Amino acid sequence: MKKDSYKVAVVGATGAVGNMMIKVLERRSFPVKDIVLLASGRSSGRTLEFNGREHPVLELKESSFEGVDIGLFSAGGSISAKFAPCAAQAGCVVVDNTAHFRMDPEVPLVVPEVNPEQIANYTVKNIIANPNCSTIQMLVALKPIHDVAKIKRIVVSTYQSVSGTGKDALEEMLLQSREMANKIDWTKEDGLNKLWTGLKPFRKVDTNVYPHRIAFECLPHIDVFMPNNYTKEEMKMVWETGKILDPTIKVTATTVRVPTFFGHSESVNIETEKKLGAQEARELLRKAPGVKVLDDPSRNEYPLTALAAGEDFTLVGRIREDESIDKGLNIWVVSDNILKGAALNAVQIAEILIRKYL
Ligand code: NAP
Ligand code: 3JN
Question: How far apart are CA 51 and CA 2, in angstroms?
Fold first, then answer.
């Protein structure tokens, strides 16, 4: 018999993504009968609020999943590798936010606006994978275009916010920014000279999270470097687009960390089989699920991280025909990486699961 409420575990509940999962479950009135908040032993003794009540944070153990219907995992790949199979074995359906299972052919990789039908295949391993945030927002924007004009090639550059690296990275950026803003002298009269001199001591600073200073810097380096000299983040966009949207699309990516707080931005260039004008694309995207078009240059209107933060929609704008080729478009896509890029996408998957299968 179908249940009307569910026991839900959040693994990594104290982290940036886990915390947002709790908020999204609450905001969308997910039918939670009982919530189990799991993290490392370091967080034992802490409590977190859900639906107006404080709940204890428990240490994640293999036995944590007894009677749990749905497990939302975001504590890193090695934790998912070890504990997702235990949870699945105990009858819990895992929605995993890490890269660990994404390319497993027996695990569906799902963006609800793009390939919700794949959720049906969760039964093979009792695990569903949530894609990488940069892939999710790009595909939410491209799916309606692909359906009409068939995309042949994607060239994407990302501008990814620091929240994508978690809470320690946000702290690193804030501390570095404060120190630099306080120590660097600036006057309009002699500003540039003072700035150059003031910046010198900050060329090389001690860091804990990133290999270089992130404050006032762009790092063309997200995740580890691969043998082909792309980063793993770049290859995730290539691999995941093939699995979710269409394996015949050619994808090349450059992923860059920029000193913004929330919201990843992407410059996306596509080549299509059928010609699609910018205005047609705008109209298509206006009707697309999960998309909000902000595209009025006459009013300086375009997607910004400040507009995307805390917003469920993926913002799309700067829609232009690529004048260097016959059938191509350029678009600018911004979305909240912790929300649609992680927590919201996972909860949307869980919503479909309970509506159709559990
Ligand atoms: P975060 O803010 O650093 O939080 C990490 C979480 O994992 C914390 O709750 C932490 O608990 C928990 N954790 C760490 N080691 C653990 C252990 N041994 N046992 C149990 N829990 C443990 O990181 P985040 O930004 O939330 O990201 C977490 C993971 O989510 C990432 O590693 C990544 O795999 C995934 N993620 C996916 C996307 C996406 O694109 N879909 C985006 C961001 C992140 P304590 O507080 O107790 O240490
Ligand atoms: O860097 C970002 O903006 C997104 C980060 C995602 C991430 C961070 C650490 C480990 C992932 C991911 O989801 O691909 C992983 C991982 O699970 O490999």
Answer: 23
Distances (CA, A) of 312 to 54, 112, 292: 26, 13, 10
Q: Note the pLDDT tens digit of each residue in 319-347.
A: 999 999 999 999 999 999 999 999 999 99
Judge if the beta carbon of residue 114 lies within 6 A of ligand 2.
no
Q: Is 63 exposed, middle or buried (0-12, 13-18, 19+ CB in 10 A)?
A: exposed
8 Å CB contact between 327 and 72: no
Kind of pairing between the strands at 127-129 and 53-59: unpaired
Active site residue 264: yes
Q: Between the CA of residue 71 and those of 9, 105, 174, 259, what are the distances in Å?
A: 5, 20, 32, 32
pTM over 0.70: yes
- With bands split at pLDDT 50, 70 and 90, how would you rate the model's confidence at 198? confident
Determine the residue of 10, 11, 14, 348 to mutate for testing ligand 1's pocket, defined as the one with the most ligand atoms within 8 A of the Cβ atom: 14
The CA 77 to ligand 2 mean position distance, Å, reads: 9
CA distances from 244 to 6, 137, 295 (A): 28, 12, 27
Secondary structure of residue 78 in the 3-state scheme: helix
* Cross-strand bridge partners of residue 231: 225
Which ligand places an atom closest to the C-alpha of 169?
A: 1
